[in-house]
User: Fold this.
Amino acid sequence: MIRKIQTIVLLILFFLPNNVYSLIEVDITRGNLNPLPIAVSPLFSDEKTINNGKKELEISDIGSEISKIVENNLKRTGLFNPLDKKAFLQKPDIAHFKPRFEDWGLIKAQALITGKVSLVDDKLKVEFRLWDVLAGREMIALAFTTVPNNWRRVGHIITDKVYERLTGEKGYFDTRIIYVSEKGPKTRRIKRLAIMDQDGFNNKYLTLGNELVLTPRFNPTNQMVTYLSYFKNLPRVYLLDIETGLQEVVGDFPGMTFAPRFSPDGKKIIMSFAKDGNSEIYTMDLENRIVEKITNHPSIDTSPSFSPNGKYIAFNSDRSGYQQIYTMKSNGKSVKRISFGKGLYGTPVWSPRGDLIAFTKLHKGKFYIGVMRTDGTGERLLTENYYQEAPSWSPNGRVLIFYRETKSDSEGKGFSAKLWSIDLTGYNERLVETETDASDPSWSSLLSN
Amino acid sequence: MNLIKILKNAFLVVLFSFVLSACATKTKQMGSQLQGDVYTGTDTVEYLAKGVPDRVFFATNESVLTTRSRDTLRKQAAWLRKNPSINVVLEGHADERGTREYNLALGERRANSAKDYLMTYGVSSDRISVISYGKERPVDSGSNPLSWSKNRRAVTVKAN
Assistant:
């Protein structure tokens, strides 16, 4: 169960030439202080492809651009150390055909990615290989064809395959983040829904900023988003089709509906409905619009999140007097408080693996992002700050993205809102760059599977 | 020589008293504006009519009305009874020291606690609508207890 410590090269296997297991293995269950040295050779492309890339996609050299995407993805995981290309001795096309492992070993590469890309007749054909340098063996060989506009996704898909082969876990690179883009003074913030690739590219705004929008979340197939909009000053839960841009209100109850999320099968939306000073949790079936009341308590019940198997719901309630995290069966029975540490707890989100719940904790004037097991044991705080909240899981359950706000004076000077990510290990905390200030991130599932 | 010494001392005394008085006004100001952690000043308050403040303030995490808040709401109720053609929206707000979703619920609870009080003093419920902004619309951008206390509020806004 517990993986080998850090990057282990099993030297023993080196002397067993017929062993079929991979020799390199990357452990992702703890902070990695020795990231695996990996050489990402630029994908080879011929002159015709390079010219087509310039013409059709306005990029100088598609092969090396794609390899840069792979390199940056790997670097951001904190698990890999992509080596400087200047030190590479072999040309991309020859390396892809048959790497001279001694050369790659010389620059201390333990793994090598090579590949080839062609862009002809509006088709982008890619092949790539992952090599174990020390064992002198191919670990993956894969080829696929796609439309030219998907060229950045090609880099992400290659990273997913490499990550999966080397860590034994699915990747999270061919994914997108939906978030709220923020602009303007703190007292009159303008907020728009925005979507971008996981690495910050291909940013698009989905609403104009005429009304306040909050808390967007993907459906399981990543085509729909549910969010809160103050359209016509009526805070209601909405549904947005990302492709068509069509919006519709789903929580049109006589009061405020908010804190929406999809059920794991995508058929229902779970949300809070506040009326007469009391917030309760409801579900709505998107097909027949049947509404079910799940909680029944005079306290605030909000921030519901389904377990991945749909059987349980984690939520936030102040029925004990203060904000705490509770779980219940999806029919509202067997309500159980699970947070018992010092301080206030909010925004529970069930991990895609089902074993953990991520949360926000407020204690002695500090905000923490943490995780606990689904019965509340094993609480672990990952990061502390002046203000941060709203964690969202990467689809493989290894990374959390959240937002952080900075302190400001009465004129709003010093204020910023930014997206950050951190590994489940508590290591590798990183700013996720966005064009504008940003909050309320939600991570999609893998786009290709 | 002596004269210089005297002047110097006099200068120090004056300077010292300046420092003292600066401190005194500061504490006095704070004292008049924050009671417990509820804001009691008026610098963000607007007036629905002469002597009728538009907002009430709450303690951290609370939606209970203070004595002062009830006094304000009674004035609002009296004014609304005299002006039966006016409808109002009660906007509930929270400070920035909470999670967004919980604060939306808390703002709604605060607005309703003010609404309930207006209703007890004879304002019909169909003249009052409620909206929560959670922590989305602070009046004061500061990240300090005084600013937060100004932001924990329910504001009565004319709807027509």
User: Anything to note?
Assistant: The domain at 8-167 of chain A is CATH 3.40.50.10070 (Rossmann fold). The two ends of chain A are 25 Å apart (CA to CA). Residues 1-22 of chain A have pLDDT under 50 and may be disordered.
